[in-house]
Amino acid sequence: MSTRFAQYLDPVKEAELADIAKRLTAPGKGILAADESVSTCGKRLQDINVENSEENRRKYRELLFSAEPDLNEHVSGVILFDETTKQSDSSGNTFISVLEKKGIIPGIKVDKGVVPLAGSLNECTTTGLDGLKERCEEYKAMGIHFAKWRCVLKISKFTPSYQAMIENANVLARYASICQQAGLVPIVEPEVLPDGEHDLETSRRVTEEVLAFQYKALADHHIFLEGTLLKPNMVTPGMQSSTPATPEQCAVATVQALSRTVPPAVAGVVFLSGGQSEEDATVHLNAINNVPLRRPWALTFSFGRALQASVLAAWQGKDENIQDAQNELLKRAKANGEASLGKYKGDQGGAAGNKSLFVKDHAY
Ligand code: 13P
């Protein structure tokens, strides 16, 4: 072995990371993002008039994770919030063990949230590197095998700036490196927010630029790409745009942006839903998987809002609605699993179907 390059990860760790990433993106499967912080979960609960108590958050997560039959048919992994990793179902089984028993890989949000990027035009970065190594090692010992860190980039006349793109790409790369050393597959999430009046072309060009910064930073930090997942926005016109685009046009723009910037070594791309309605997110994912361009990676989902809106609407905090709410989750998971194979027929509308889930300047 040349001494010019250090061996950053040992081959056993590399093989383990590649295997986790591969299982997370198994054909027809995707990820349930249930990592809402206490305050974000509170906003979801408030919408259905449920108090934001620790017990209600626990109950809601139990509803999600105990959906039967076969949540694991279309869900390969679940992203948890720290509080949830310490909670158990009503029979006393930890949520981590409940997921493991179903063959679903537990994951964890490790960032500490979006903060202002000083010296910029209202742009941001994400904090959480302090103590990250120790936290990742603890999570790994608990049976957690992948992680998420979200950065946000904003489209306006002068943004995203060079400053924001380089800073966010770099902090994501440092997070990814720490995760891999600890045996966690990092989900790298540089989200270009959908807020704005911009058209599809602008969205594609900005997404492309952000991803180019991202993969340069990952290379600079010696990241083992086969043991990573990318969680990008789909390329769509801004939420306030006056020039709409069809799902097919969005899909082509999305695959173009990815194919120009994301190396084929990356294990998979797991899209966020970004405030699209449940149905729109599924239809877009399906169209993406039918684009006649080269697509060397799995293209699947890691949805939060677009997997949970119908569930919350059906639940309303009532025990007698739990089964109905779980059925909504299974229905959305199946629809998105089919969409990840390009086989969604548009026949799985849920209780929140076409309702926009857009939240201005969305924080998680
Ligand atoms: P949405 O699917 O609600 O955009 O969220 C996914 C996520 O995990 C964002 O970090």
Please describe what this structure looks like:
The chain is α/β, with parallel strands linked by helices. The protein has one domain (11-339): TIM Barrel (Alpha-Beta Barrel). It contains twelve helices and ten strands. It has helices at residues 11-24, 38-47, 54-65, 82-85, 95-101, 132-142, 162-181, 200-220, 247-259, 278-288, 305-315, 322-339; strands at 30-33, 75-80, 105-109, 114-116, 124-126, 146-153, 185-192, 229-230, 268-271, 298-303. Strands 1-2-3-6-7-8-9-10 form an eight-stranded parallel β-barrel, surrounded by seven helices. The protein has a two-stranded antiparallel sheet with strand order 4-5. Helix 10 packs antiparallel against helix 11. The chain starts with 10 loop residues before the first helix and ends in a 25-residue tail after the last helix. The mean pLDDT is 95. It binds 1,3-dihydroxyacetonephosphate (13P). The site of 1,3-dihydroxyacetonephosphate (13P) has 11 residues, from helix 11.
Write the layout of secondary structure elements.
Elements: H1 11-24, E1 30-33, H2 38-47, H3 54-65, E2 75-80, H4 82-85, H5 95-101, E3 105-109, E4 114-116, E5 124-126, H6 132-142, E6 146-153, H7 162-181, E7 185-192, H8 200-220, E8 229-230, H9 247-259, E9 268-271, H10 278-288, E10 298-303, H11 305-315, H12 322-339
Parallel strand pairs: 1-2, 1-10, 2-3, 3-6, 6-7, 7-8, 8-9, 9-10
Antiparallel strand pairs: 4-5
Helix pairs in contact: 6-7, 7-8, 8-9, 9-10, 10-11, 10-12, 11-12
